[in-house]
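[step 3/7] inverse_fold.run input=structure_tokens len=94
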């Protein structure tokens, strides 16, 4: 939830723009960024629910699909060391 909260303002604006692109009404942003983000996700899902295949997902699976899975993704980097095409797990101390 911290990841969502840290990006709430950006998510609210992005989902509001997508809502308009999908034919929905523009979402009025609220003073609270978290509320704005949740409202924008809900409005965008309502606009997309008329398109084939999106209504069955539900609001949060839809939001995750739209963001490529990064809606609640951790912002930590991968523990894998990548050299060329190979991936190596870093050594672990006992």
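[step 3/7] decode complete -> sequence:
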């Amino acid at each position: 939830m911290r990841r969502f909260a840290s990006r709430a303002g950006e998510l609210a604006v992005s989902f509001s723009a997508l809502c308009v692109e999908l034919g929905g009404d523009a979402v009025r942003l609220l003073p609270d960024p978290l509320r704005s983000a949740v409202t924008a996700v809900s409005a965008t899902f309502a606009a997309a629910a008329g398109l084939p295949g999106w209504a069955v997902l539900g609001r949060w699976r839809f939001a995750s699909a739209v963001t490529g899975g990064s809606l609640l993704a951790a912002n930590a980097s991968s523990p894998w060391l990548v050299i060329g095409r190979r991936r190596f797990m870093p050594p672990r101390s006992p």
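[step 4/7] annotate
The CA atoms of residues 64 and 70 lie 7 Å apart.
The chain is about 45% helix and 5% strand.
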